[in-house]
Amino acid sequence: xxxxxxxxTGRVGLVTGGNGGIGLGMARGMAEAGAAIMVxxxxxxxxxxxxxxxRALGVDADSVVVDVADAASCEAMVAxxxxxxxxxxxxVNNAGTAIRKQPQDYSLAEWQEVLTTxxxxxxxxxxxxxxxxxxxxxxxxxxxxxxxxxxxxxxxAPYSSSKGGIVQLAKSLxxxxxxxxxxxxTVLPGWIDTALTIKAREQVDGLHQRVLDRTPAGRxxxxxxxxxxxxxxxxxxxDFVTGTSIPVDGGFSVHI
Length: 256
Prior knowledge:
The protein has a 7-stranded parallel β-sheet with strand order 3-2-1-4-5-6-7, sandwiched between helices. It has one domain (2-250): NAD(P)-binding Rossmann-like Domain (Rossmann fold, 3-Layer(aba) Sandwich). By secondary structure, the protein is α/β, with parallel strands linked by helices. Helix content is 46%, strand content 15%.
């Protein structure tokens, strides 16, 4: 019985930003549990490499080029996934960006770029996938928040605002769509070793050591650390879990 709770055979996952970092780590986890995967990203070469990796795990996988800052592109991504696989069981809203400056130094265009990429796209993609999931009897939406959904930082005003918004958006969608058997939850990654955080370590003095000192696990996280939570939130084991936020952070958020 327990194995069925984490068996994704016959299910389809759609992962924005799925060609690298946390998105690919989650896609791998779902693929290893049996799900077919649609990788969505801007970079065609990275998309193709991710698809090859996932197919090597023995599952069906494909990719779609998407610009999550463009609503029409997000809607086309959902339509293409439905056409390709016939259904969409789990949407992972993972695509994101960051611009690190002091609050007074951001232009309005920079603010809007981060909010559109991180928050508005998650709303648009969720709206687009809703009728597909409702028609098939249910589904899962996984939002990617951040430690910045909880904490503040001097260098991340728009990023933190977008990730705090992700948590509240997930709660609203969860409340509205529970009647349609759609569960919506947020994962809060800690400090994970990805291309995005490599830039953070270059731009924020002392960040690397501060993360190690604050994290009880004593290390930065890895993309593959998110495989298990992806399987849980994409599968039937989480059918009565909705509107919540789950840190995957090595204890960062509970340690002082």
